[in-house]
Amino acid sequence: MATASERITVLVTRAEKKRIAKLAKKAGVSRGEFMRRAALSYCPPFEEAMLDQMLVLMNNSTSKASAAIDHTLAFVEASNRRIAEMEGGVSGQPDRR
């Protein structure tokens, strides 16, 4: 990891400074490291909206894929029954003579 060499001055209230110090201590890192991690992990609201939209699309495609699998399994089952009937079996299993 590169050594930090640039400074960013951030104004906070006394209460915020105490809270940041407490949270940093609890995390076992310096205030500066805590602030760096917090700033770099921040996800702007527009990214949240984009992630929400991606989840909707993923859920829709999962539902469609599941329906397609169900349809295919039903088709294969019907096909197996037809084959069994053509081969003279009634159990759904091909006759193994």
Characterise this structure.
The chain is mostly helical and 97 residues long. The chain has two domains: 10-42, no CATH class; 44-97. It has helices at 14-27, 31-41, 45-86. Helix 1 crosses helix 2. 0% of the residues are buried.
Q: Share of helix among residues?
A: 55-70%
How many individual domains?
A: 2
Number of strands: 0
DSSP summary: helix tally: 3
Radius of gyration: 30 Å
SSE diagram, text form:
Elements: H1 14-27, H2 31-41, H3 45-86
Which features characterize this protein?
97 residues, mainly alpha, 2 domains
What's this, in brief?
This protein has three helices and no strands.
